[in-house]
Amino acid sequence: MKNTDRFIWLKNLIIFFVRYLNIVLVTLSAGFVWNNYYNDYLGKPFSARGNEDWLLLLLYAVFFHIFSRIYSGYRIGSQRLTDIVYSNWLSVCITNVLIFVILILVTDANRGISLIFYLTFAEVLIILLWAYSANKLYFRLFAPRRVICFYGGRFPEHVLRKIRERQEKFELVDMCAFDGRKNIESMLEGVDGVVLYNLSEEKSAKIMALCLREKLRYYLVPTVGDILLKTSDSTFLFDTPLYVAKNEGLRPEQRIVKRCGDIFFSVLAIAVLLPFMLVIALLIKLGDGGPVLYRQKRCTENDRVFTMYKFRSMIVSAEEEIGPRLSSENDPRVTAVGAFLRRFRLDELPQLFNILTGDMSFVGPRPERPELAADYVKKVPEFALRTAVKSGLTGYAQVMGRYDSSPEDKLKLDLIYIQTYSLLSDIKIILMTIKIVLFNLNENKHKPPRTGY
Questions:
Q1: CA separation (Å) from 337 to 187, 290, 312, 313?
Q2: What angle separates helix 252-288 from helix 423-439, to the nearest 10 degrees?
Q3: Least buried of 133, 146, 252, 368, by fewest C-beta within 10 Å?
């Protein structure tokens, strides 16, 4: 079937069907277990308990839907199959825990805790079958979208690489350095879309107008200015529309709520994880007898320099001979304990104390070393905009980006977070971080350097 816009209604119908089919299958499996196996614990049959049980099933479906949306579990055709499976698996686990807590509060269901594990296992099998079948159906009906990339300036090697990584989604038919004089109408014959990269406003407008006339999709790789424009408010000067970027950062009430949350959850996390952190410290000390913590100067809000703490993951003499430098994949300076800590980001746990003292927040742009930040600013001046808010333990660039994301791409993601900040976005990023830490879904085969120990 040719992938043209006249089939868009069918595509939307299929996406809608497979999305809610997953909810139905998972929710029905939960209802089946409750009705057939929880009867002994609930006091009377599940089916005889009245409307409250149907409300519980509805609540189960709502929870699963919310977490699947947060973790992008519905993105059939645009996400990798493993990403979809992991996202839905984590959504099921969180939903089952929440519902089981509710059951414990209103019934004597705690005696049937083993059934939750059996239910989760069965639901994972359902998710695997659903995700595999839905993915197969999607790409059977919709062939890869044939696109041509028009660029200006240097050749966009990183864009080309990312398009090629999604061969099941895109077929790149040509790359063209557009000077504004070429006849592009003939070049667009037989293609389904256009990718625009680093073109002037005049050249982009010319191609977009043609795409609009020919009903072709275009994918614009935004500049920093585009990001700031997109996240601006709209207003009017009489009959003239205006975009206004207030550039005020977080509002006072947002700062207060964010700081109160940082204090509360950092104290809670330290209290819960302190025994675990003591074990990590002991393992590091027994490994080579060196210091447990590594201290490093980083930049936070308004370019203020602070001392960030991490568990030491390299040998003590890692920077004695050649000074500070970025670490790389399979770096021989990384210790055995350090490799494990880096794998699960456990070396970052001491930063909970940085959050408690106010140098960092749970969510925000990752703090850079002052010398690296200065170097990035020389190449991309807008990189300094990242320090409009306090740096964070995790951030939008960490959950949406990849290990090899360029400083410019990280800047764009951080600016989206800063310009559209909300408490809900912080919660979503924290929940997404759980998936990244557990499965390392944004890792690449070729990892870029990490800073420091």
A1: 55, 13, 9, 7
A2: 20
A3: 252
